[in-house]
């Protein structure tokens, strides 16, 4: 069983991992397009979390995780509890490439018809939201900073996350 991580799964998979590979997903991009009302914000003051948003010609570089053999059922149950808390994500299987190899991965993508979907927000607006929001798992900015730092450690460039990190640091003082 392979799982594709593009956000917090990169730095906190939460399941036993047998192998990791940098992977590329075509036709989707990493985007702060989901209002977070549980983990990084509240119903009254939503934060933003990353989701895979479909876009023609887009690519998303992330990490393919191979789940430890024998831990697949437990991993799937735990991922569903974590990722499907509000049904804004859709569980799907997508093909990613790792060099010359193609892997089928479990992935969580945004449901563009869900009321938490907010694709297309300007980066400046995203920065203000992320700088202020706090949810059950802590400040929204920590989620951004952790994701951006781990992507950089992996050699994965993401211009939007790099810009947002710098801007949120300015706003947060």
Brief write-up:
By secondary structure, this protein is an alpha+beta fold.
Description:
The protein has five helices and seven strands. With about 170 residues, it is an alpha+beta fold. The chain has one domain (about 1-170): Hypothetical upf0131 protein ytfp. The strands form two sheets. Strands 1-3-2-4-5 form a five-stranded antiparallel β-sheet, sandwiched between helices. A two-stranded antiparallel ribbon has the order 6-7. Strand 4 (about 90-100) and strand 5 (about 100-110) form a beta hairpin. Helix 3 (about 125-130) packs across helix 5 and helix 4 (about 140-155) crosses helix 5 (about 160-170). The longest helix is centred in the C-terminal third of the chain and has 14 residues, at about 140-155. It is globular, with a radius of gyration of 15 Å. About 40% of the residues are buried.
Give the SSE layout.
Blueprint: E1 2-5, H1 8-11, E2 17-36, E3 47-67, H2 72-83, E4 89-98, E5 101-110, H3 123-132, E6 134-135, E7 138-139, H4 140-153, H5 159-172
Antiparallel strand pairs: 1-3, 2-3, 2-4, 4-5, 6-7
Helix pairs in contact: 3-5, 4-5
User: Outline, from the CA principal axes?
Assistant: globular
Structural class determined from secondary elements: alpha+beta
How many E-type strands?
7
Q: Ends: how far apart?
A: 42 Å
Biggest sheet: strand arrangement: 1-3-2-4-5
> Tell me about the biggest sheet?
5 strands, antiparallel
What is the C-level CATH assignment? Alpha Beta
CATH superfamily: Gamma-glutamyl cyclotransferase-like
Q: What helical percentage do the residues reach?
A: 25-40%
| Content of β-strand | 35-45%
CATH architecture classification: Roll
What is the CA-based Rg, rounded?
15 Å
Would you list the SSEs in sequence order as H and E? EHEEHEEHEEHH
CATH topology: Hypothetical upf0131 protein ytfp
User: Average pLDDT value?
Assistant: 96
Tally of separate helices: 5
Number of domains: 1
Low-confidence blocks of residues: none
